Amino acid sequence: MLDLRAYRVKEKSIAVVGLGYVGLPLALSFARHYRIIGYDINEDRILALQKHVDPDGELSTDDFEGTDIIFTTQLEHLAQASTYIVTVPTPIDEFKKPDLSALFSATHTIARVLKKGDVVIYESTVYPGCTEEECIPILERISGLHCLADFKVGYSPERINPGDKEHTFTRIMKVVSGCDEPTADFLAALYGKVVEAGIYKASSIKVAEAAKIIENTQRDVNIGLMNELSIIFHSMGINTHEVLEAARTKWNFLPFYPGLVGGHCIGVDPYYLAYKAAKLGYHPQLINAGRLMNDNMAAFVAKNIIIALINSGKDVRQAEVLILGFTFKENITDTRNSKVADLVYELQSFGVKNITIFDPHANASMVQKNYRLKLASQYKDRQYDVVVLAVPHKEFTTFTEEELKSLLRSPYIFFDLKSVYFSIRKNFNYWSL
Ligand SMILES: NC(=O)c1ccc[n+]([C@@H]2O[C@H](COP(=O)([O-])OP(=O)(O)OC[C@H]3O[C@@H](n4cnc5c(N)ncnc54)[C@H](O)[C@@H]3O)[C@@H](O)[C@H]2O)c1
Fold first, then answer.
1. Which residue has its alpha carbon closest to ligand 1 atom 35?
2. What pLDDT was estimated at residue 57?
3. Beta strands of 302-400 (E only): which ranges?
4. Is 22 in the pocket of ligand 1 (CB under 6 A)?
């Protein structure tokens, strides 16, 4: 019988498998109420966490205070848990197909220590059907146990928004589901103790998986539409920002904006849904169109930078370009699937050699390792032919007109992708999405 009491009095413990952007805040929140085993295969990460340092820079030392948690890479520690929460990455491969290797590997690991009466909860984002069709068979095969009869499985998608200090783990309504009703109730009680925003019980694991994936698919398709509008309005000489300001005066106009869609959620999850749909014989039109549109925006921006340089009589090969921001969105450290990298590669393909990239939040050695691009340690020491405000970190949103101009040579070509400086556009050779 699934009994939360044993966890509340700490007779049983919970393992969180994968301590990244999702797993760590979850583990620390749970560790204020339950005994937690924080498990990860990355030794460096575990060493940092043991010293109460979050390698991703999202949480502070204070967030570790008052928690009942051990950080480990050891299977024998993992074996002490009775509930396992899986929060490992689910990216795409080079062909934009789901890469489930971390999910399967974590499932194998858990299966090796799974006991009768245990519960496995998946939080990683997957396509509908993945938990039941892929993960449960691995758990059964390796452990020799049977789902429902011997152990239970639940799914509860994570909805955190990196860098968002308001919508944190405990302040977002949690969707839970289970392989049977008692398991769904168990998840509801387990998360209900921690999540202040409330619990929503989905009718099945597949429904919960699908709900998560469409949240990001909806955003992707809508941003894709804004990006398409931006391309159209550029060819018409209309500013998209001004159009959107006017349109949003209607009560039911949805507030989406054009932009580079990077990261590992909005730009990845729709591929999971499209993959599963295609496997079932349906090739999504809108979903794939949104992906295609958003994946090509960096090339559109690069083309316009080249046009602006040529139109102002600059030699593209000698031009000096400053790019401000590299992370996949503002005020975070995460550089996964950065579309700014695409922008740089695209500019390089046109022959632009002198590109300075500055980002006070990104980890320079990670950028070097993953993208073979060098981040500058400073940028104010000279002038540039173009400034591209790619990611409006807070450090980049308070420039005065004079400060911006001091970075630029005449004719002040300023690519302000997200229209942060729209109000002073007339004093620059200005471009925004
Ligand atoms: N980051 C977000 O904002 C966010 C939001 C909602 C959902 N998600 C989803 O949550 C999941 C986790 O994403 P993330 O951003 O936290 O990933 P992450 O890369 O930040 O962290 C994953 C952690 O898992 C560890 N790991 C990898 N394989 C492992 C294994 N076999 N056993 C144990 N640990 C392993 C890694 O070392 C890493 O520390 C993904 O499915 C993602 O799509 C992420």
1. 18
2. 86
3. 320-324, 354-358, 384-389
4. yes
Question: pLDDT, tens digit, for every residue of 184-218?
Answer: 999 999 999 999 999 999 999 999 999 999 999 99
DSSP state of 125: -
40 lines ligand 1 (CB under 6 A): yes
Over residues 248-269, the pLDDT tens digits come to 999 999 999 999 999 999 999 9
Residue 161 phi, psi dihedral angles, 5° rounding: -120, 105
Looking at residue 58, what is its pLDDT? 86
- Identify any residues that bridge with 92 across adjacent strands, giving them in sequence order: 98
233-243 residue pLDDT tens: 999 999 999 99
* 102 CB within 6 A, ligand 1: yes
Q: Is the CB of 291 under 6 A from ligand 1?
A: no
* Amino acid, single-letter form, for residue 319: A
Q: Is 265 a catalytic residue?
A: yes
Query: Domains of the chain by range and CATH?
Result: 5-203 (3.40.50.720), 296-431 (3.40.50.720)
Query: What separation in Å is there between the alpha carbon of 250 and the centre of ligand 1?
Result: 39
pLDDT, one tens digit per residue, over 153-195 is 999 999 988 788 888 889 999 999 999 999 999 999 999 999 9
Report how far residue 330's alpha carbon sits from residue 185's, in angstroms, rounded to the nearest whole number: 38
321 Cβ closer than 6 Å to some ligand 1 atom: no
- Whether the predicted model's global pTM rises above the 0.90 cut: yes
Q: Is 81 helix (H, G, I), strand (E, B) or coil?
A: strand
Q: Quick one: which atom of ligand 1 is closest to the CA of 157?
A: 7
Q: Which of 142, 264, 266 to mutate to test the pocket of ligand 1 (most atoms within 8 A of CB)?
A: 264
